[in-house]
Specification:
The chain is mostly beta strands. The chain is about 10% helix and about 40% strand. The radius of gyration is 24 Å and the shape is elongated.
Length: about 350
């Protein structure tokens, strides 16, 4: 299972404008300004992201889910003057903070909400350390000859949130995304990275992917499909699903050209199972972006005596979007074989 949680709050902290809040901006920035030699100075920006992890923390802490990995995802809007290699870090935030209602374009500037100096309304509560008070857990992602999306493994710090005496509050504090320590303080220019925020009008808001293996395997009396031509489809797709539901999609496999024989049931209706090296992926039907990727650990098909299936948490997808299910099967008739089954299995999430 790869379960996505979208931010409950986000903002950019600007060192050059220490009290400005930009909580409602549609863009989040990681930028460093290096002043000219006649006016020396370094000014960084950092991204603060917070999440409501209440639903998943209760499931994990109750033992119904065993979390294995967590990834923080940011989607690039624009990159300018970036070097051929650089590093982004994620540090867990230790103080409560408010997203605020400001925008960088506001004049006069809005100071209600988190900024470089303050955690909430300007003049009220300060960060213990300017730029955001963070813990000791630091995770990073390095980029070489690329300016793409960020996907930072935050499993260790997320696990710390879950083990906290108040995991829901700790999780809402979230992470600070910034350049590595050396890249923030040296005199080199690293350009500007702009990512979509939770207030974007696109389909690319940040998200936290929580991953665990929810697969189980018991084939019963079924046999594996080994014919050269196989039909793989979703049996119980209802097309529309409410955002707060959990759904089990039944994946069925049959022969395209069954061998005719005498028996009590039609050979064309005989059900088979797919090999254990079978996986599902979810794509946005309009943009063709992969929302849930094939993953050998976290999107494995399960099996019962009735056939294959996988479970999906619908609130981990964006509402009012249409999605498509794709199935990947490896080593079905020979080692090294890879097959993709995309039969336009569409479904929509409604509010």
């Amino acid at each position: 299972m790869i379960y996505s949680i979208f931010p409950s709050k986000d903002t950019t902290l600007y060192e050059a404008s220490e009290s400005v809040n930009t909580g409602l901006d549609s863009i989040l920035e990681v930028t460093k300004i290096v002043s000219e030699s006649n006016a020396p100075g370094l000014y960084n920006t950092r991204i603060a992201l917070g999440f409501d992890i209440t639903p998943i923390s209760k499931s994990i802490n109750s033992g119904s889910v065993t979390m294995q990995d967590a990834y923080l995802n940011l989607y690039i809007s624009k990159a300018e003057a970036i070097p051929y290699n650089y590093t982004l870090c994620a540090k867990n935030i230790l103080q409560d903070w408010d997203m605020g209602i400001g925008k960088l374009s506001h004049n006069p500037e809005t100071t209600t909400g988190a900024s470089w100096i303050f955690t909430d309304e300007s003049g009220s509560t300060k960060w213990t350390v300017a730029g955001g008070t963070t813990g000791s857990v630091i995770t990073s992602q390095s980029f070489t000859y690329e300016s793409g999306d960020a996907r930072i493994n935050v499993s260790e710090s997320f696990g710390g949130f879950l083990s906290s005496s108040d995991s829901d509050v700790a999780g809402s504090r979230g992470w600070l995304v910034m350049r590595s320590g050396s890249e923030e303080v040296n005199n080199k220019r690293y350009g500007s990275l702009k990512f979509f925020s939770v207030d974007t009008h696109t389909i690319y808001p940040p998200k936290l992917d929580v991953c665990w293996d929810d697969s189980s395997w018991s084939t019963g009396s079924l046999t594996m499909i080994t014919s050269s031509e196989a039909l793989v489809y979703i049996k119980n797709n209802k097309f529309e699903y409410k955002a707060d539901t959990r759904t089990r999609f039944e994946v069925r496999a049959r022969d395209v050209f069954p061998i005719q024989s005498y028996g009590t049931e039609s050979a064309a209706l005989k059900n088979y199972y797919l090999p254990s090296s079978s996986y599902y992926s979810i794509k946005d039907a309009n943009s063709e972006d992969t929302v849930v990727p094939f993953d050998s650990n976290y999107t494995k098909l399960s099996c019962t005596s009735n056939g294959n299936y996988f479970d999906l948490y619908m609130d981990g997808l964006q509402a009012e979007r249409t999605y498509r299910i794709v199935v990947k099967v490896e080593d079905r008739t020979y080692s090294g074989q890879v097959e993709y089954f995309d039969n336009n299995n569409l479904f929509k999430i409604t509010r």
